Amino acid sequence: MYDDGRMMAPGGLLLASTLADALSLRAGERVLDLGCGRGQTSILLASHYLSRVTSLDLWIGARERQEKAAAAGVERHITALQGDVRRGLPLERESLDAIFCMQAFH
Length: 106
Description:
4-stranded parallel sheet, alpha/beta, 3 helices
């Protein structure tokens, strides 16, 4: 539940699991993990829920998150992007099954 600051948002995995369960995600569904920080939730969504995740954060670089995904063995299920959702995304909204956003600073 806590990870000594290696990721962001203490207790995030417990909260993420609760939210993902409420979304009733199914294997293969496309999820935008918005404001994902260091990608902890993206890895959970890809590994436990078998989602295809677009991992987006403004402050944490895509390379760092893609490396963490590779270390977790889920790199082919995660596309890491760095950017601001207010400036648009390189994907169609209709291509998403869910938008996952928790503990992000708005």
